[in-house]
Design goal:
Length: 250
């Protein structure tokens, strides 16, 4: 009698295991069990921008994920019209449009608004398909609005090797777009308290190429100040003027 009970229990357990297995696996035409592959999840990144300056608001930040081969700007080359619009007037619409029209585009967005001095932006989230993870570049561009044509950010930084949980921090240098002379006059700067025109299609910078910004001079010093400048000492900035923090959350 005990042997019969044991055999019955073994048969029941085997039947239950087979039923559980059949719920996850499929059988092919030959009766062999085929395990279905688990679908890979898309990756997700979060990007935050810190304004490191004392009194330079950052315009709404253009944040772009793309593949290699695309650049919003190149050191030593003339700025595009899209970059000029951003660097002189803080308008990032054309910069975002430029990357969205490129074959290398993955994802892009703008912060909800400007990033005040000494503050951190809200996180901007991006989803990246797994097929694109082998070549992901990050570009970030924002104007220092109390300047003629200074901007800060990252240029095609490689974040392809990040895994879930990784946090990468990078410095955002300050660039001069080379499109407008750095007169530092109120009429040519759109920042708070100045209300200048911002973008002007005429290019009057004698170099007309993107390069590292030398910093604003201001009119503070009678000996070394710039006679045309309406900027004060608080508007000066160091390099870097921004910090970019990227987190892979999925």
């Amino acid at each position: 009698m005990n042997h019969v009970l044991k055999l019955g229990a073994i048969t029941l357990a085997t039947t239950l295991l087979a039923a559980c297995s059949s719920s996850n696996d499929d059988d092919n035409d030959d009766g062999e069990t085929v395990v279905s592959p688990v679908a890979e999840q898309d990756a997700m990144f979060e990007v935050r921008i810190t304004n490191l300056t004392n009194a330079q608001p950052l315009s709404p930040v253009a944040i772009m994920l793309h593949q290699s081969g695309f650049n919003s700007f190149i050191d030593g080359e003339a700025a595009s019209l899209a970059l000029e619009l951003l660097a002189e007037g803080g308008d990032n619409a054309d910069v975002l449009g430029e990357v969205q029209a490129a074959t290398q585009h993955i994802a892009s967005a703008s912060t909800d608004g400007p990033v005040p001095p000494q503050s951190i932006s809200d996180a901007v989230s991006f989803t990246v398909p797994t097929d694109d993870l082998s070549d992901v570049r990050l570009s970030v561009i924002s104007m220092l609005v109390s300047t003629n044509d200074a901007f800060t950010g990252a240029n095609a930084a490689n974040i392809s090797n990040m895994i879930v949980g990784d946090v990468v921090t990078m410095s955002g240098p300050t660039w001069d777009s080379g499109t407008e002379a750095n007169t530092e006059t109120s009429g040519t700067m759109p920042g708070p308290g100045f209300g200048g025109e911002g973008f002007n299609g005429a290019r009057d910078d004698i170099l007309d190429v993107v390069r590292f910004h030398g910093g604003v001079v201001t009119g503070e010093s009678a000996e070394f100040g710039l006679s045309t400048s309406d900027l004060e000492d608080e508007h000066r900035f160091l390099n870097p003027s921004s910090r970019i923090v990227v987190t892979r959350v999925q």
